[in-house]
Design brief:
82% helix, mainly alpha
Length: 62
């Protein structure tokens, strides 16, 4: 993942990965690499959403 990965870019890449895996045109090795990349992107997106939720919670309490 790049240093400047945005949530939107991560989601776009996840969509590409899902599409590639659904087509079943990739080799097993490539599928595993895509799956690994997808799990990292999912963790990044989840963390980003959690941080946003915490900020919203703090802002609405003030």
């Amino acid at each position: 993942m790049s240093k400047e990965l945005s949530f939107e870019n991560a989601m776009k890449r996840l969509e590409e990965i899902v599409g590639a895996l659904e087509k079943s045109e990739t080799s097993l090795d490539e599928s595993i690499k895509l799956f690994e990349e997808g799990t990292k992107l999912t963790a990044f997106c989840s963390k980003t959403l959690d941080e946003a939720q915490q900020k919203i919670t703090l802002l609405t309490k003030e």
